[in-house]
Amino acid sequence: MNEFYKKNIISVRNLDKQKLELIFDATDKIIDMSQDKRREIARGKTLGYLFFEPSTRTRLSFESAIALLGGTSLGIADATSSSIHKGETLGDTVKVISSYCDVLVLRHSLDGSSRFAAEISNKPVINAGSGTEEHPTQTIQDLYTIKKEKKKIDGLKIGIAGDLKYGRTVYSLLYGLRNYDVDLHLISPESLRIRSDSTYDIKKELSYTESSNIDEYIEDLDVLYVTRIQKERFPDEEEYAKVKGSYVIGSDMVKKMKDDAIILHPLPRIDEISADVDNTKQAKYFEQAEYGKYTRAALLGLILNENGF
Ligand code: CP
Question: Where does the signal peptide begin and end (predicted)?
Answer without folding.
Answer: none
